[in-house]
Design brief:
Layout: E1 3-6, H1 16-20, E2 25-27, E3 33-35, H2 47-53, E4 59-62
Antiparallel strand pairs: 1-4, 2-3
């Protein structure tokens, strides 16, 4: 299963990933996205779509 990660230095807080996968991502106190459930990918959420849709390339998936 792929594990998502958000690069806090790149994230602009646009919310695209949260709109696509609210089971996996949410806003942190700084208004940027962060991962709340690494196991959500593939279980009701297409994390690859979040990776592909991030306008600044802040999301990555690792095995």
């Amino acid at each position: 299963m792929s594990k998502p990660a958000v690069d806090q230095n790149k994230c602009t807080g646009c919310g695209t990933c949260i709109a696509l996968c609210s089971e996996v991502f949410e806003f942190n106190d700084e208004g940027k996205s962060h991962v709340i459930d690494e196991k959500g990918c593939g279980h009701g959420c297409d994390c690859q779509q979040a990776v592909d849709s991030c306008p600044v390339g802040a999301i990555s998936l690792s095995e």
